[in-house]
Amino acid sequence: MSNFFPNHISLRRIESVQSQSGLCRSSIYALIKKGEFPKPVKITGARAVAWSSQAVDAWVAARIAGVNKG
To answer: What is the pTM of this model?
Structure first.
């Protein structure tokens, strides 16, 4: 049986995203609104959302790369 997800894809809930990014909930949603942070995906029903681990990791890495450039 082939692996459906070639690279292990996982989802993070808001608490984990806050911890990794160092941002509060309102800052995350403000950045999403401005198109500057990865959008969440709905995971169940209409209210539960999560973020792709890879998207959040890439966002954090880009912030670190920006700091290291300047």
So the answer is: 0.80
Residues paired with residue 11 on neighbouring β-strands, in sequence order: 52
DSSP string, 20-53: HH---HHHHHHHHHTT-SPPPEEEETTTEEEEEH
Say if 6 falls within a structural domain.
no
Q: Please check whether residue 64 lies inside any domain of the structure.
A: yes
Contact 31, 18 (CB under 8 A): no
In a domain, 2, yes or no: no
Q: What is the pLDDT along the chain (70 residues), one digit of tens a residue?
A: 455 555 678 999 999 999 999 999 999 999 999 999 999 999 988 789 999 999 999 999 999 998 777 5
